[in-house]
Every structure is written in structure tokens, then in C-alpha cells.
Amino acid sequence: MKFCPKCDARFETLWSKCPVDGHELELEQADPMIGQVFADQYEIISVLGTGGMSVVYKARHRLMDRIVAIKLLHDDSDKVAIERFKHEAKASSALKHQNIISIYDFGIVGSQAYLVMDCLDGKNLSEVLDEIGHLALDRAVHIFRQTCMGLEHAHKNGILHRDLKPSNLVLIKGEDGSELVKIVDFGIAKVLPHAAKEQTRLTQTGDIFGSPLYMSPEQCQAKSLDNRSDIYSLGCLMYESLAGVAPLRGDTAYDTMTMHVSQTPRSFSEVVPELNINKSMEALIFRCLEKLPENRYQSITEVLQDLPTIQPQSGSVKVKAVQHPTKQRLEIKYLRYAFWTLFVFVAAVFAYMSCDNGPEPDHGTVLLKTIWNSQTTIAQTLTDLHLYDQAHWVLTSAENTARTKFSNRGRLMTALRMERTLFSKAKMFDELQVVNEKIATLNSQVLLEAYDTLLKELDDLAKPGSESQTGMKRILAPITFTTIDHVNRGLAGAAMDKHTETLLTKARTVYINLLGNDSPQVAGIDMLLAECYNRQQRLPMMRPLLAEALSIYVKAANNNNIINNNKNGRKRVLALIKLGQLDRDENRYEDAEKELKEAMNLAEGSFANDKTLLYQALNSYACYLAQTGKAQESKAIFAKADTIATEKLMQE
């Protein structure tokens, strides 16, 4: 089984790249907890799901022979995270309702907190939407009403969910065969002030929790919350269930949160006109999605009163007439300004054909874009017909248009690649060399633009701000690591090591200021920066960085947490290998032996299934032995490494 580290999709395939996003697929490693007995009574069967703070396993109670789900908090979690985890247990166990998951047990084994709950045999709503796109109205109403009844029970007991989303609604088969909704994951639930004063120390104003696609405006701004925040999240969930798309989605988490604060979702008639979604249902959802809490429904009970009902005899849906107050105001305004609207529309059509359109990355008039699309289509047809001179003439025009009229460099790259294909087929080798140089130059320009953009993003993260802004930056900072690594690889491939050094040095400073000295992200930057210095042969600069990275990974991984060892333990082995290789090459043999031997032992003991890592560790230690004159020992370990390399090639 292979998985995509970007979208987390699984594939039983020989493909090397993800068919969804093109990311490199990796072999999935078996979770070491599977088959183990946890807390002396729970036999771990399989992994049900993973998250940033915890992992959920399917398990069997050995004495009661009962299948349950166990949620394990990562062992590297801080005291506040453990307190929140305890709070989830208290919050969930206090709720006894058929539409809320049941909690059976909570405890701490060693330093690892766990929660035992129902193991639900069904799919969550997010998985259902991924499969079928959107829900039919009758099924949607059935799910919405059950969700509201569960939330109503939670709110009456003084508990907010704060992370209501499709993946937290599990659909199972009820005793009567009907579809039953279970609300899960009260991991960031909040006890209202009148219910528990002590909870305020865990979720004070200024903390940001939730999933950006479903967060209320006040939640995005880290303001105090009440039950109307859950109503907004419910509105997002209902919108996506009926339309098949989230109401608001930006390019980044920050963009999405900003849109929740300032933008109104598009109507169903704009997004999915073919579905013809009921207007009263749309009015109900858009009232839930009001920006100001006072303009929304004030309780889940009010939502239930306006939700359609299902007739028990026929199963048909009876929709109640609902008038959205905001829409009513807009209709009056439209009638009053109809003439001016028509005038503006006519003027806009005229301007549309003569002025720049589209987003910032793709400026250009509609007329020019249409002409360019036609040019590339004609050029492709001419190339297929072997009319190379005519195709060359058309593509030259398309290239000039893309270079001078459009801001989107993707259009220029498309034209150049089509020219390269043309010249290759026509055996026009001089022209082929010229166009290859153009493509290389354009790639460098795109890379430098990405580099400049990333520096600006890091500058924005480094700017001082309010407590809520700083909290949001702490959420966003780790997300930039993947982009930093991608740009770093591009710069390294283009031999732009000075640019790489500038980027990584700035990123390291920003990460330390936002995330602290012991953050694994800081260690990741240390490893990249050490590689940069290695390419520049500035070896004295490498060792402090590698030593710091190793220290961070030891703290993160060497804490008896098997789950976390998979995450940071592998990075610890890599840091030991890099450090040992450096000490070996600089004749610090005593240090090198200690580091490389420890890396080999860790790889053989904890990561034997990771053939690539094990091969690196064995090969590095064998090289050290050969360099220090221990030929027999070296030969034996080289042989073991060669066996692993052969196995890996056979698997691939």
C-alpha cells in the first residue's frame, strides 16, 4: 500500500506519483501499536484515524470481548493539551444522547492519556460527500435534524462543540435500519461560563481552535464564543452537504478565515444552479451563516423549528416557508436601484471587452485570452499534421502574446513547451537549443519569484501583532515548511546556494520566535541549512546545526511514545547519520563511531521496515569501519546493506 503525504490518499498501485495532486507516493509503514495490548486490557487491532494531537485505534477489550475505539494523545503533548484531552472526556461523558458518541473510559498510562469510546461502524459525512458529491434533500434533512437534536442536548448542558464539520458526523445504521447520526470529537469543546468557571483557563479569548472551512467569524478572530458559533458551523456543514462545495474556501487557511470574517457565500443558484435547491432551505442556511451572531438563529431549537420535516407515512419532505431577513432587505434595494443596476451592467459589459480581467496572477482581456487559446489549438493541429513551418509561425505569435500581454507565466511556459515539441519532431535542432534556453531562463525567473514571495511571507510572520494575530501565525508558520523545502530544493538544483542560505536563515529565526527553540520545525530547518553549508564546503558551520537538530529530535522522540517515535525518531536517525558522516570526514572518529553506531542500532531496532533508512544507516557505519581499517567488520555490514538494497529494488 502506498500513500500520498500531501493529500493522505491510499493506493494499491505501482504508480510513483499521486493521481490526485502529482505528489510523490511513499510506502505506508505498519503502525507498531497494532497487535499490542494497551492499558493491560485493550488489544489494538487497526488505525481508524490520525490527527495533529492524537491517533484513534480500533481495539478489543480483552475481558469483555467488546470492540471499542481508543483515542491516544501524542506523548509529546504539553500539559495544556492533556488538560484539554481530560476536558473532552468530561464533556463527552456528560452528554447522554442517541446522536452523540458514548464515552466509556478515560485514563493515563505512563505519560500517555487515552479515551475509550464507541467504535462506530459507518462512514463520516465527509467520506459520503467525497463519494456522491452532495446529499438529496430528504436524506440531508434527516441528517440535519438529528445533528440539531444532538447539538441541542449539548448546548442545554452548557457545552459547545466548536469543531462541527462533516468528518465529525458519523453515519451508522440504527436499530430500526434507518440512518443514525453520531456527533463525535468533542476534543476542543468548550464549557460555557455558567457551567464551569475553571474551563476558562483552557480556552480563553485569544486561542484559536477549529477547522478553517467551518469556523465562525468570531472564532476566526479569537473572540469569545457561544452556541451561535456552532450554529454558523452547522450552516457551513449544511451548505456543503447540499451544494457539494464549502461555502467559503481560500487558497490558504488564513485566506479562508479572512473570508469567513468579511465575505458572504455565493447563493446556490450561482454555485449549483442545476440542483435547484429549495429557496426556503437556502434562506435557513444563509441565516445560520450571518456574520453577526445577533443576526443568526439564537438557538438550535429555532433552527429545528424552521427545518423541513419528514412525513412518517410517505417519507416526503415538508418544507416550511422561511424568509431570510438579509435577502428581504436586498430585494427592496434591488427594486429601488433597478435602473442603475442595468446601467452599470451595460457599462461593465463594455469595459469587460476592453479592460484587464481575472485575478492578479492572470491579467489579460477576455478577447486576448480567447485569441491565445485559439492560437495554441491551431498550432497543435498544424503540428499533428506535420505542417511545421505554419505551426512555428503561430506559436511565435502565441509566445509574444503571452510574454507581453499576460501576467500568467504558465501561458508563456505552455507556448515554449509546445515549441520544444514542434522543434523536436521537425528535427530543428538549432531552434530546439534556443527554446530550451528560454525554458531554463523562465524556470529560474519563476523560482526567484517564488523565493521573493516566500521571503515576504516570512517577513509578515515576523511582524509583531496582537495576541490573536500571534496565535494565528503560530498556526500558519508550520504550514510554510513544505513550501520552504520545495523552494529550497529548487534553489539547490539551480546552484543558488546564497539564496538558499538567506531563505533558511530567515525561516529559522521566524520559527524560533514563533514556535520556540525545541520545535521539530526548527530542527527541520537546521537540517536543510546544514545541507546548504555542505554544498558550499563550509563544514564548520554544519556541526552546530546538526547537533541542535539531533537534540530537538531526541527530546521529541525519546519519550517512550511509539507513535511519536515514527514521526520524529526517523528524523533523529537521519540527524545522527549526517552528524556521524561529518565527524568521520573531519577525522573525529570517536564521535563518528558513537553517532553512526547509534543510528544503525536505532534503524535496526525501531525502523527495520524502513528499508531506505536502514540502508543509509548500515552503509554509513560500514564506510566508517572501512575508513578506520576495520575491513572484516566493514565487509559484513556492507553485505547486509547490499541485501537490503536488493530487497528495496525488488519491492519497487
Q: How would you characterize the overall build of this protein?
A:
With 652 residues, the chain is α+β, with helices and mostly antiparallel strands. It has helices at residues 79-93, 125-132, 137-156, 217-220, 227-243, 253-262, 268-271, 279-288, 300-306, 325-336, 338-352, 366-384, 388-405, 409-425, 429-462, 467-476, 480-493, 497-515, 520-535, 542-557, 562-585, 589-606, 611-627, 631-651; strands at residues 2-3, 10-11, 26-27, 37-38, 42-50, 54-61, 66-73, 103-109, 112-118, 123-124, 159-160, 169-173, 179-183, 190-191, 309-310, 317-318. Helices cover 56% and strands 10% of the residues. The model is unreliable at 191-208 (pLDDT under 50). The protein is globular. A hairpin with a 2-residue loop joins strand 8 (103-109) and strand 9. The strands form 5 sheets. The protein has a 6-stranded antiparallel β-sheet, covered by helices on one side.
The best one-word shape is: globular
Strand order of the largest sheet: 4-5-6-7-9-8
- Based on secondary structure, the structural category is alpha+beta
The helix content, as a percent range, equals: 55-70%
What fraction of residues sit in β-strands?
A: 5-15%
Keywords:
single chain, 652 residues, alpha+beta, six-stranded antiparallel β-sheet, three-stranded antiparallel β-sheet, 10% strand
